[in-house]
Write a structure and sequence with these properties.
Elements lengths: L6 H38 L5 H42 L1 H6 L5 E6 L6 H7 L11 E10 L2 E16 L2 E16 L7 E9 L4 H4 L5 E3 L4 H6 E5 L2 H7 L2 H14 L2 E8 L1 E7 L13 H23 L20
Helix pairs in contact: 1-2, 8-9
């Protein structure tokens, strides 16, 4: 494991990358103006109509300017940004989380994540096409003696629009897995709770039975699907439903929750990546965002694990480290 880096040292790397980013934009802007002038001079010598000249000038300027942007990105920005982001991920993220002192057995793999099969089997969001599936920034560990995995997930699919094919994003956000949820409550098949804003293509396939609880407030906000209706009502106690509702209010984003076997999955729909370094935001603010995301993870654990009998977490399960998610 690499040595940690201080806030001040990381801020120096960030400011260097930010300066190169601004230089890249400035150089690209100057290049675009020169390209525009040169292309227009060339087109002015042609015998085409004014409309054709303007169209060709704009097309040529945009195309060549994109090439200039790529060149200046490689020349000016790529290396300092990689130095900053690599330090952020490999030397800052994990140490920042460890400072909280509330998670155990922490491991962070920037390139790791859930597999397409993990998300498909969880049925918490639509997994879409396997070839366009992405998951990264995998954080694993223990909270209150329950193992968790927390990762960015993006699912996409190929769609036809007339004669064109486009890759469309279906879900972009984070998925959290708690394993195991409850020694006594095991979900026979899938139990899925979707916030009603989750559109049908975002939530993917659903279990056979659509059910409603005795809570009108919960039913107005969530849709519930279960493979086993009796099992669903066994798990969905009034206390747990209240915790799910409060968790959604706390997060302030669309959520989905599924139970399968002894595992529980939580999906949060939002576009912000959890552990990517950003050059135009001070390190102190980015640290606050990391801590905020970890508070979200803690609150998910507190809310859902408090639904265990007696309001306590399960007994420790040992220190297994070879488990895949």
């Amino acid at each position: 494991m690499q040595a940690t880096i201080t806030d001040g040292e990381l801020e120096i790397l960030r400011k260097k990358a930010r300066g190169r980013y601004r230089a890249m934009l400035l150089c690209t802007g100057v290049a675009a103006l020169l390209i525009l002038y040169a292309v227009w001079r060339l087109m002015a010598e042609e015998d085409d109509s004014l409309f054709v000249k303007i169209g060709a000038t704009l097309f040529g300027t945009v195309t060549l300017s994109c090439g200039a942007l790529a060149f200046f990105y490689w020349l000016l920005f790529k290396k300092p940004y990689q130095a900053f982001n690599n330090a952020f991920k490999s030397r800052y993220v994990l140490s920042t989380i460890q400072e909280m002192g509330i998670f155990g057995q922490l491991q962070y793999d920037p390139k790791g994540g859930f597999t397409h099969d993990d998300i498909r089997n969880a049925a918490v969001v639509a997994c879409a096409d396997k070839r366009y599936f992405e998951s990264e920034d995998l954080l694993t560990g223990c909270y209150q003696n329950v193992r968790f995995a927390f990762s960015d997930v993006t699912t996409r699919r190929l769609v036809r629009r007339g004669k064109r094919s486009e890759v469309e994003t279906v879900f972009d956000g984070q998925v959290i897995r708690f394993d195991r949820f409850d020694h006594q409550k095991i979900s026979n098949g899938h139990l899925q709770i979707f916030q009603k804003e989750f559109l049908s293509d975002l939530r993917g396939w659903t279990a056979e039975h659509k059910i409603e609880t005795d809570s009108a407030a919960f039913n107005s906000k969530f849709q519930i699907y279960a493979a086993d209706e009796h099992n669903a009502f066994y798990i969905l106690t009034p206390h747990l439903m209240e915790k799910i509702r409060k968790f959604q209010e706390l997060v302030g984003e669309q959520i989905a929750v599924t139970f399968r076997g002894e595992a529980m999955f939580v999906a949060i729909s939002r576009t912000r990546s959890i552990f990517d370094g950003v050059v135009d935001v001070p390190v102190a603010e980015q640290k606050a965002l990391i801590l905020s995301d970890m508070d979200l993870l803690k609150n998910a654990g507190d809310i859902f694990l408090s639904a265990l009998p007696g309001g306590t977490a399960p007994e420790p399960r040992g220190t297994e480290t070879g488990k895949t998610w």
